[in-house]
Write a structure and sequence with these properties.
Blueprint: H1 16-47, H2 66-95, E1 102-109, E2 112-116, E3 122-123, E4 126-129, E5 134-140, E6 145-149, E7 154-158, E8 164-168, E9 174-180, E10 192-198, H3 200-210, H4 216-222, E11 248-250, E12 256-258, H5 261-269, H6 292-304
Parallel strand pairs: 1-5, 4-10
Antiparallel strand pairs: 1-2, 2-3, 5-8, 6-7, 6-9, 9-10, 11-12
The chain binds copper (II) ion.
Copper (II) ion is lined by residues 145, 180, 182, 184, 188, 191.
């Protein structure tokens, strides 16, 4: 719960303080003119009020002052122009999404949020990396909703049957409120969740942990195993995966090895440990690129290529 204040919550995105500067400029301007106009009105109403016996001396015919009218036309016009240019620049910055932004798909429905990340991870809190632009690609399954993150000063309608998008970048790890700000039915007020900003490495770890593991054949192509290993028994840069599991393999040092799960695991994580006879030690290590669950998936795939 934020402490109660008349001000906006502390700015937490890269655009928020720019937005605040413009907001407080307009706010200050409004207060300034409100005070001048109201106090002027009261002051003159009292000063020039009709007293007893004043009925005779009604106002002179004085009704026009060119310098005064120019003054109250030109000054507001200039101020409007400042607000327009300033606002337009900020609007463009908010509207043009950086090309390198991490894209997250947002789905809204009565009365919940779902966030889908690359690699198939999903969540109902929005998890984003710190210090990187994030693009939200949004759509709704039913009525119009609107996604609002007050601390980031970003807000955009979420519509059925089409995509809307917006972006932000947050440079501080932490948790922030996110809620629907378009009245969307009875339980609209429960469409509340959190944005969790994690460091780049924690974010990657979180994505890994929450990803649905793709099938081994998908990984075989994604990690480029297909460029060196065939599935049909033909030799390539590397040995074929066909009927590999359960074989005995000759190694360059003259020893032999049984191809079991542990050998497969070692071959992928530490390819230089055992070099298959007749091949060059050119396979790159996948030590830091392939997580355990993906390794399981790949090994399962290689096992499935064994013909009974
Ligand atoms: Cu809603």
């Amino acid at each position: 719960m934020n402490e109660r204040t008349f001000n906006l919550p502390p700015p937490a995105s890269t655009i928020a303080s720019e937005y605040d500067a413009l907001f407080y400029f307009i706010y200050g301007l409004s207060v300034f003119f409100f005070v001048i106009i109201c106090s002027g009105t009261v002051f003159f109403a009292i000063k020039y009020r009709a007293k007893k016996g004043d009925e005779e001396k009604l106002t002179s015919g004085f009704c026009h002052s060119t310098p005064l009218e120019l003054l109250w036309s030109v000054i507001p016009t200039l101020l409007m122009f400042v607000i327009f240019v300033w606002g337009f620049k900020l609007y463009m910055r908010y509207f043009v999404i950086p090309a390198n932004a991490t894209e997250i798909k947002v789905t809204a429905w009565q009365w919940n949020w779902n966030f889908t990340y690359g690699e198939g991870a999903q969540s109902n809190v929005l998890v984003v990396p710190k210090g990187k632009p994030v693009k939200l690609l949004m759509s709704s399954n039913d009525v119009i909703h609107s996604l609002f993150i007050p601390d980031f000063r970003v807000k955009m309608d979420v519509l059925p049957n089409r995509y809307s998008s917006m972006w932000f970048q947050c440079d501080y790890e932490g948790e922030y409120d996110l809620y629907c700000t378009e009245y969307c039915g009875q339980q609209h007020s429960t469409m509340v969740t959190r944005v969790i900003v994690k460091s780049e490495s924690d974010y990657q770890k979180w994505i890994e942990e929450n990803s649905v593991t793709p099938a081994g054949d998908v990984l075989y192509n994604r990690y480029g195993c297909n460029t060196c290993h065939s599935l049909d028994g033909s030799a390539n840069n590397g040995p074929s995966f066909k009927n590999l599991f359960g074989k005995k393999k000759m190694l360059t040092d003259g020893s032999t090895v049984d191809v079991d799960e542990n050998y497969l695991r070692e071959s992928i994580l530490n390819p230089q440990a055992k070099i298959v006879k007749g091949y060059e030690p050119v396979m790159p290590t996948f030590q830091n690129t392939i997580s355990d669950d993906k390794l399981d998936s790949l090994i399962l795939f290689i096992k499935s290529l064994k013909e009974e």
